[in-house]
Amino acid sequence: MIKKSILILCIDRDNDLFEKVKISGPIVGREANMSAATRLSLADPEETDANAMFKAINIFDEMSKEHRVEIVTLTGSKNLGYEADKEISEQLEHVLATFPAESCIFVSDGMADEEIVPIIKSRVKIDSVKIVVMKQAKELEKTYFVMLEKLKDPYYSRMIFGIPAIVLLLFSLSSFLNFGWQPVGIILGIYLILKGFGIEERIVGLFSGFEFNVEKISLIVYLSAMPLIVISFWLGIQSFSQARTLGLVGAQEAAYFVRSLLVLLPWSLLLLIVGKIIDLVSERRKIEIPKYGLYAISILLFWLIFSVAADWVLNLAPPYVTFSDFVVVILLSVLIGYLSIKIMRGIKIDVALDMKLEGKEVLTDVGAYAGKIVGIDRKNTSMIIQSQFGQKFTMPLDAIVAVSEKVQVRAQ
Q: Containing H/E element for 9?
């Protein structure tokens, strides 16, 4: 009777194994896992990943009597998110290439590891999920560790610690400069609007793509942009104080602040984008340039709309701006934005058609394995992808996010 091949899978998503005992994944085999778990327990007796690894070893010992099994621990990244999931995906593919398991038993400490289940399922069938929780006050302890894990995530740490800290600093600075609470209210209001409409995530995603590296030429451009950003906000603060001396109140006070802020801020942001484009050209990542081109156009349209809006609210001197002028600018900006998206999409597709994509593996932007590119449909501007189960499907070329050894696409 042929024994079933089963993989006993344990995942250290935040890479504590490397951070605490300098052990990199994948860790394959009973002895290697026993050694790694023991070293991790000695380094941090409260580490839940070590408990999960010991549980995986226990399951391995029981299953090996009746099945062909292998035990492996995969490691992610301390930054969590996409970076961790991508590392785990690559390690799992490597393990499955050497041990083609029919299914797996996923052993988890019950925290952030559960978020990786969809990625595992895309590569191998999961027969069972074993969650290891320490016996003392299980629910309370699990809650504690969930909170602890979430605080390691930059997103939640910004929400819990970063935003209150910024609010305190803003109120302190405003009080010190005798500006009152209004400037802080305006800033918080703008932030809540950005947060509520999902714009904040896009802005954070945009700036996270900039790499400040002394070995890159773009560093000079980035360093030139930083003082301009600081000066822009200082001009805005000074104009807010000046608006009071001119007798402006309410919307006019805010408009005076915005008009001064927009003197230098858009151009400093454009400098950052120019630096990023320089990096993309030098790294031969031309397919990403249209995205940053759209960012640049968006900044210019943002500058145009808000400048005209501020002039319409103020109207302190000719030429005066009417409401109809403001509406025309909005409609013109929408038209320019629409045409820009079409043009940049066309440029991106042309770049993709000139690249050699056949044979490359495809991952989604959340780390899930989609398949391998087996052809390009130039007529329909799409790529033909074959999944690991042999099924073929198409995906538009403009869904490509990045191209390196593998192709990263936007999840459909």
A: strand 5-12
